[in-house]
Design a protein that fits this description.
Layout lengths: L3 H10 L29 E6 L5 E11 L5 E11 L11 E5 L11 H4 L8 H15 L3 E5 L17 H17 L10 E7 L1 H16 L4 E8 L5 H7 L6 H14 L11 H10 L4 H8 L14 H5 L4 H7 L11 E5 L8 H13 L4 E5 L8 H4 L4 H13 L12
């Protein structure tokens, strides 16, 4: 749930050696049915892409949704043109993008290459990627599951299991992609902010069981929307109501058995259909300040449903902070965050501390409550890159649990 681009727009305008990649048989955004046989992280297709300062390759790879069904996912692998000057082999960092939207043209693997719905969103995504490349890391960027790959359905926005799987599997895909010079079992890291912060945090929790062969040295999680129940209240009626709409689309995609759309009145059903076609800026400006109670048949807000079956179980399954990460993690957020309450990210970090994890909490520099979530993206990328540099050197420290 990121508003980085929104703020900028508003301010500006106002170890496994796996099989080699299969032969390219068309766009990475088309998939066959059934999918080809393969393991999680196997590369199905690859195509040259473009990105200044790096060799870029667009990929389609295999991953799993929240129901453990195998799916095709798109993304990009970027290797800096400059040689790696650090110790050991060049690290791979999975970049988990922040909110980019729901429409087929919104995918970061398109916008990073100057295609699709390129706007300020892609500029901010590029800023995070540039910080990681500038540190000398190879970057494995996932698009998550979504309609950019034909037949994949809606994007399961901020759904814990599917986003963790796609983040971990894009690292595997980068390790298995021929012609990159990247090690098949070298050091890796994960970084993301906002939606990407929760995806990175979820990957930190699942890495030991879902991808135990990965040598994850550290995970950076910025402003993570770790508790969906809290966000259903904080976003309702506010400027960033569109993100709540995205979350409902995500629930409907990931849990069709919950029959979420049965709760919507005609206005709610219309908003749902419109939001499915938007990228982030459009969603924010179209839906700001809407009240979810005006979209339901009985006039109740969304938050009232999330405390009742079957949605209470869905909220619980998607809460982050319940599993101890086995690697050092940094959690960073502005104390004045105007989109995701800082208490949400801090509680996740405290929950991890209570389980004995190595957690570093840091207040993200902010100078005003206005657009503080978005403006955090001005410093988060460099903070992530610097902390991961230390983690790759074995200098992540012992954290600051009990002191925040």
């Amino acid at each position: 749930m990121t508003a980085s681009l929104v703020a900028a727009g508003t301010v500006a305008a106002l170890a496994v050696n796996a099989p080699a990649a299969r032969a390219d048989t068309g766009s990475v955004y088309t998939s066959s049915s059934p999918l080809p046989a393969g393991q999680n992280g196997d590369v199905v297709k690859s195509q040259p892409s473009t990105y200044n300062g790096a060799k870029a390759t667009r990929i389609q790879y295999l991953s799993r949704d929240n129901k453990d069904k195998q799916v095709a996912v798109s993304g990009t692998v970027l290797v800096p043109d400059n040689p790696w000057n650090g110790p050991g082999e060049r690290p791979i960092v999975a970049y988990a993008p922040f909110t980019f939207g729901m429409g087929p043209d919104c995918a970061p693997s398109k916008t990073l290459a100057g295609e699709g719905a390129s706007d300020m969103v892609s500029g901010f995504q590029g800023g995070f990627v540039n910080a990681l490349l500038g540190a000398g890391f190879a970057v494995a960027q996932t698009d998550y599951i979504g309609p950019w790959v034909e037949g994949s359905g809606d994007h399961p926005y901020v759904i814990r299991l599917s986003e963790a799987h796609t983040v971990l599997d894009v690292i595997r895909a980068a390790q298995r992609l021929p012609g990159t010079g990247l090690p098949a079992d070298g050091p890796v890291g994960i970084a993301g902010y906002s939606e990407g912060g929760s995806a990175a945090a979820a990957a930190a929790e699942l890495a030991a069981t879902y991808a135990p062969e990965l040598d994850v040295k550290g995970v950076y999680s910025g402003a993570p929307p770790a508790d969906k129940a809290a966000l259903s209240k904080s976003l309702d009626g506010g400027m960033y109501f569109g993100f709540l709409g995205y979350a409902l689309i995500g629930i409907n995609q990931a849990y069709p058995e919950a029959k979420l759309m049965n709760l919507a009145n005609p206005t709610g059903a219309e908003l749902f259909l419109k939001a499915r076609q938007t990228c982030t800026l459009n969603a924010v400006f179209q839906f700001m300040y809407k009240q979810s109670g005006s979209l339901t048949k009985d006039g109740k807000p969304v938050s009232s449903y999330l405390s009742q079956p079957p949605f209470d179980a869905i909220v619980a399954e998607n809460r982050i902070g319940t599993v101890k990460p086995t690697m050092p993690v940094m959690v960073e957020q502005s104390p004045m965050d105007d989109v995701i309450p800082a208490a949400v990210g801090k509680q996740m970090a405290k929950d991890w501390c209570g389980k004995g994890a190595n957690v570093q909490w840091k207040d993200l520099a902010s100078f005003t409550p206005l657009f503080s979530h978005a403006l955090g993206m001005m410093t988060a990328p460099n903070d992530a890159a610097e902390w991961l540099k230390a983690a790759f050197k074995g200098q992540a420290g012992s954290g600051n649990c009990g002191r925040f």
